[in-house]
Amino acid sequence: MPTQPIPAPGSHAISIRNLKKSFGSNEVLKDISLEIEPGEVVCIIGPSGSGKSTLLRCVNLLEVPTSGTVLVGPDEVTHPDADLDRIRRRIGMVFQSFNLFPHLTVLENLTVAQIKVLKRRKEDAIATARLNLHRVGMSSKEDAYPGQLSGGQQQRVAIARSLSMEPQLMLFDEPTSALDPELVGEVLAVMKSLANEGMTMVIVTHEMAFAREVADRVVFMDGGYIVEQGPAQEVIGNPREERTQSFLHRVLNPMVIDAAEVIDEEELSTAS
Amino acid sequence: MSTQTTYPATEVAAPRLTRRQRARLSLGVQYALGIAVIGLLAFMTDWATFSAAFLRFDILERMLPRVILIGLVNTIIYAALAFIFAFVVGLLLAVMRLSSVAAYRWFAGAYVEFFRGVPALVVLFMVAYGIPNAFPGFQFPGDKYGMVMVGLGITAAAYMAETFRAGIQAVPKGQLEAARTLGMSHTRTMATIVIPQAFRVVIPPLTNEMILLVKDSSLVYVLGVTAAQYELTKFAQDFLNRSVNATPLIVAALCYLAITLPLSGLVRKLEARYAKAR
């Protein structure tokens, strides 16, 4: 890993330095350093278990890092005295499983935090909510409950919920992984329009076509390290590292692995 | 060459039934058995004596306005007071049991284990006689009503705490994460996101708890209540002693059902309403 010069605080949207995270004896993140610039769209790709989601969750401290520092704008999230509730307001997050509040209507999902956290007046919160529902094309469903919506619709509402807090950056944790294939497109379209509006976005994803088209930068992670990063065209189109090449080969050609290989792997794993 | 299988005559002792025929036969036998038992009981019972023991309308008439105005009303008041106490204390205990402060967790755990393991009657006695002795001059607000509220509520709170805890833990972790990500504090998240969802899960068991409290209110008579404080069981017992007839018990039973059956109905309604918001 090349050592990076220490940046002046506040010059990056996110600045991660020497981040490590272990769950018990399992070290999931092994010395990660990464900077994200304002307005940048960064896709994090890599095999499952490579630490992508954990890295994302360390940015807003849903996971507490074992060591290292994370700065969001000028604020050190990892500082023991950090006011997390205040910092988190500025960081939108979209989850794989949507996590809409099932006991609230779509509109209430978007207004509850505005009213309770930002102390906005109810009318103002509703106006902001409607604006953001319009942005994701869900205006007609404001009185529905999440359970009445499709997965794609729920995820669009979840994006609108985050946007209603007017965050400075957005984290997406595999936002389309729980969706039926025909519903993926509508969510990606919303994310793309967000990217075009200049939102700072960090996206953990398996959608290579999306990463290639929308990302300013692609970060490939494996085994708790950042193996390779750079412009999407380079990392996905012409990867330098052998591990990146083999990962992309498997992802882009899922039919290429023949049965003998899988059986061999199974024998290896049962033997161990 | 024949493809048909033939059996020797000796093996066809019983006629072979199809599966449907067998099912029908089994059902028929069950019905016949049930009808035979009911018929036999009906035949053996001396109906005149039976109804004289359980259903004397003259006794019912003598009980009538007061069994409702005093017995039923007091039963509802005792159960409702104990429920309110148990609800508040139970919710508090559940939150304590899930607290990050170890001392709170231990206290709530010890409370639940102790009061679940001790009979409600013993706790009621402890409250009714122990507390006034331990704190001379202390008066329960509302006298017997306050005493019952605490005496029955303490035990019910232990059960409700466990119900609430299960309800809170049934709310997916992602709900908590989503709320925290939106900048809500832990307390705010519990109050606006987790506990409202937990309530839906716990409404059926809470109603069961209410039904149990309605029935447990029959323990109140051991406190030596005045005639105006009688609940259904004490009221019925009073009449039982005077009339030497079981009719008052039947009347009391019907009054209990008049409370508990609508409660069950209410649960079904609430469940249906919440199911819509799933």
UniProtKB/TrEMBL annotation, chain A:
<dbReference type="InterPro" id="IPR050086">
    <property type="entry name" value="MetN_ABC_transporter-like"/>
</dbReference>
<dbReference type="GO" id="GO:0016887">
    <property type="term" value="F:ATP hydrolysis activity"/>
</dbReference>
<dbReference type="Pfam" id="PF00005">
    <property type="entry name" value="ABC_tran"/>
</dbReference>
<dbReference type="InterPro" id="IPR003439">
    <property type="entry name" value="ABC_transporter-like_ATP-bd"/>
</dbReference>
<dbReference type="GO" id="GO:0005886">
    <property type="term" value="C:plasma membrane"/>
</dbReference>
<dbReference type="GO" id="GO:0005524">
    <property type="term" value="F:ATP binding"/>
</dbReference>
<keyword id="KW-0547">Nucleotide-binding</keyword>
<protein>
    <recommendedName>
        <fullName>ABC-type polar-amino-acid transporter</fullName>
        <ecNumber>7.4.2.1</ecNumber>
    </recommendedName>
</protein>
<dbReference type="InterPro" id="IPR017871">
    <property type="entry name" value="ABC_transporter-like_CS"/>
</dbReference>
<keyword id="KW-0472">Membrane</keyword>
<dbReference type="InterPro" id="IPR027417">
    <property type="entry name" value="P-loop_NTPase"/>
</dbReference>
<dbReference type="InterPro" id="IPR030679">
    <property type="entry name" value="ABC_ATPase_HisP-typ"/>
</dbReference>
<dbReference type="InterPro" id="IPR003593">
    <property type="entry name" value="AAA+_ATPase"/>
</dbReference>
<keyword id="KW-1003">Cell membrane</keyword>
<keyword id="KW-0067">ATP-binding</keyword>
<keyword id="KW-0029">Amino-acid transport</keyword>
<keyword id="KW-0813">Transport</keyword>
<dbReference type="GO" id="GO:0015426">
    <property type="term" value="F:ATPase-coupled polar amino acid-transporter activity"/>
</dbReference>
<feature type="domain" description="ABC transporter">
    <location>
        <begin position="14"/>
        <end position="248"/>
    </location>
</feature>
<comment type="similarity">
    <text>Belongs to the ABC transporter superfamily.</text>
</comment>
TrEMBL record, chain B:
<feature type="transmembrane region" description="Helical">
    <location>
        <begin position="114"/>
        <end position="132"/>
    </location>
</feature>
<dbReference type="InterPro" id="IPR035906">
    <property type="entry name" value="MetI-like_sf"/>
</dbReference>
<feature type="transmembrane region" description="Helical">
    <location>
        <begin position="31"/>
        <end position="55"/>
    </location>
</feature>
<dbReference type="Pfam" id="PF00528">
    <property type="entry name" value="BPD_transp_1"/>
</dbReference>
<keyword id="KW-1133">Transmembrane helix</keyword>
<keyword id="KW-0029">Amino-acid transport</keyword>
<protein>
    <submittedName>
        <fullName>Amino acid ABC transporter permease</fullName>
    </submittedName>
</protein>
<feature type="transmembrane region" description="Helical">
    <location>
        <begin position="249"/>
        <end position="268"/>
    </location>
</feature>
<keyword id="KW-0812">Transmembrane</keyword>
<dbReference type="GO" id="GO:0043190">
    <property type="term" value="C:ATP-binding cassette (ABC) transporter complex"/>
</dbReference>
<feature type="domain" description="ABC transmembrane type-1">
    <location>
        <begin position="72"/>
        <end position="267"/>
    </location>
</feature>
<keyword id="KW-1003">Cell membrane</keyword>
<comment type="similarity">
    <text>Belongs to the binding-protein-dependent transport system permease family.</text>
</comment>
<dbReference type="GO" id="GO:0006865">
    <property type="term" value="P:amino acid transport"/>
</dbReference>
<dbReference type="InterPro" id="IPR000515">
    <property type="entry name" value="MetI-like"/>
</dbReference>
<dbReference type="InterPro" id="IPR010065">
    <property type="entry name" value="AA_ABC_transptr_permease_3TM"/>
</dbReference>
<keyword id="KW-0813">Transport</keyword>
<dbReference type="InterPro" id="IPR043429">
    <property type="entry name" value="ArtM/GltK/GlnP/TcyL/YhdX-like"/>
</dbReference>
<keyword id="KW-0472">Membrane</keyword>
<dbReference type="GO" id="GO:0022857">
    <property type="term" value="F:transmembrane transporter activity"/>
</dbReference>
<feature type="transmembrane region" description="Helical">
    <location>
        <begin position="67"/>
        <end position="94"/>
    </location>
</feature>
<feature type="transmembrane region" description="Helical">
    <location>
        <begin position="144"/>
        <end position="161"/>
    </location>
</feature>
